[in-house]
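Protein entry
_____________
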Amino acid sequence: MSETDTQQSEAAPPSADSGRANFPWQRVPFVIALVLAIAGVAYTNISHQPLVGYWEFLALAIAVVCVVTKWPELDSKQAQFRLIWTQALHWVAVLVTMNMMLVSGVQQLLPTPATSLVLLTLLALGTFLAGLSLLSPQICFLGIAMGAAVPALSWLKQSMVFFLLAAVFVVGIGMTFWLSYGRAAAPDNSKHQVEA
């Protein structure tokens, strides 16, 4: 092998297999953030108590995820410094807006479950806009998923009785068919035993 061949093989980019092996682990922070956001709304709806510190913590955690996601792509200190400051200003604006919704005058207008949905909406918007500014489809998708969770959670709460009735209906139909199938199969077995 010549010297140029060894240099080319050393400079070759990592194989696609190594990228695929890290693929699930790269998505874990986004999945955790989405689960935490939905869990926060669910807890607020059940307990009827606002989780002010929880939403602030989640906003800061998503800010860290945004910086950590984009950091390996930056090659200069100036770009890294710009990333930190732009994300810091962006998420401070989101936190200020979230806290404006928690002022006592605004709180009197909104019930507690609605406040949590509003805070999730603001968090989703902040996440989506951060993804746009960073040109990160993963962060954009996280913002879209959080935003889609808002109407889904309110619809789910309103239609819980419908789901309960539908589940009872499906179980009843299933039991009816299962019992009738069991009764129909029992005489057939006795006929085979008599013929033998």
About this structure: The chain has two domains: 25-158, 160-196. The longest helix spans residues 160-195. Residues 25-158 form one domain. Residues 4-21 have pLDDT under 50 and may be disordered.
